[in-house]
Design goal:
alpha/beta, about 325 residues, 9-stranded mixed sheet, single chain
């Protein structure tokens, strides 16, 4: 059984007299900085010159510095930046200003596992990875709750790396829901696989394909949209609340029978083999090399795929239908 830590297990005094620099003020960055500030920690935000986020951070009562100055001033430097920009920021702003004894903290293990960043021996390297988008991390925290987090230690020079990471996790609300011990390798590979096989890639492709099958068979696009995309949230919410069993308990017996008898027809051994192939590409580093090269070459393929997917029928009819559903804004 994996180890879980809660607020009662964590002594955050190890970080109370320290300065934390949160690099980035996007989805994760704003949540980490504000949650830590509200938890009573000393926080500064590091941004690049000309960042449009500077005004937002300052209006929230946070001190904003350059990435370099934030690194110089801080005892803990938290990377809340996209995977694709972290290495550049590290080389140009962090590494030249990084003193021994400081802590580098990551919200995802990608750049460490795939050696885009190779920290010196004299610093601690840890991870606190919330299992939710940043806006969710913030919204749940404001309600007095938290989202589960993962903790990992890649490099422990001071002997306090684990305790410091736990204190940070408690500061952003993770200890309210549970902080699960893992490794940089496990977090990165499972996160990428989950995104590609199910959460983003798998679900998106399943929705698009089902929409195409229905509309090509002559059903109205609006009906297809409601059946294969709109109602998906209702099913996922039931699964989130009580697992597959609660979802099956909540739907009709007709739907439950269709689940058991037709689900394996759609997601068969062929799909499992494809998932295994995707996992091997992650484990071997093939996906990481491909994604890093795509960024280095200007993201041309990525932008083309984004544009093509935006033109899919389920996206077009969905936008029209959602424009007639103003109540959706209050449910996100």
């Amino acid at each position: 059984m994996a180890t879980l830590y809660y607020d009662k297990d964590i002594d955050d005094s190890v970080l109370r007299d320290k300065t934390i620099a949160v690099l980035g003020y996007g989805s994760q960055g704003h949540a980490h900085a504000l949650n830590l500030k509200d938890s009573g920690f000393k926080v500064v935000v590091g941004l690049y010159e000309g960042s449009r986020s500077k005004q937002k951070a300052e209006e929230a009562g946070l001190e904003v510095l350059s990435n370099a100055e934030a690194t110089r001033r801080a005892d803990l430097i938290s990377f809340c930046l996209p995977d694709t920009t972290q290495a550049k920021v590290y080389r140009e702003d962090v590494e030249p200003n990084l003193d021994s004894g400081k802590t580098l903290l990551f919200a995802h293990g990608f750049t460490i596992l795939y050696k885009q960043i190779v920290p010196p021996e004299g610093v601690d390297v840890v991870m606190i990875a919330p299992k939710a988008p940043g806006h969710r991390v913030r919204a749940v925290f404001e309600r007095g709750l938290g989202v589960p987090c993962l903790i990992a230690v890649h490099q422990d020079t001071t002997g306090n790396a684990h305790d410091v990471a736990l204190a940070y996790g408690k500061g952003i609300g993770g200890g309210r829901a549970g902080i699960l011990a893992t490794t940089f390798k496990e977090e990165t590979e499972t996160d990428l696989f989950g995104e590609q096989a199910v959460l983003c890639g798998g679900v998106s492709q399943l929705v698009k394909t089902a929409f195409d099958v229905m509309t090509e068979a002559g059903y109205e696009p609006e009906s297809a949209y409601f059946e294969v995309l709109h109602e998906l949230k209702l099913i996922v919410d039931l699964m989130y609340q009580g697992g597959l069993g609660y979802m099956r308990y909540s739907v009709s017996e007709t739907a439950e029978y269709g689940d058991y008898s037709r689900g394996p027809v759609i997601i068969d051994d062929h799909v499992k083999k494809n998932m295994e192939k995707v996992l091997k590409q992650i484990q071997s580093g093939e996906f990481a090399r491909e994604w890093i090269a795509e960024n280095d070459e200007g993201l041309h393929k990525f932008k083309q795929m984004r544009a093509e997917n935006a033109e899919h029928g389920v996206e077009k009819v969905g936008k029209e239908l959602r424009d007639m559903m103003p109540w959706l804004e209050s449910t996100t």
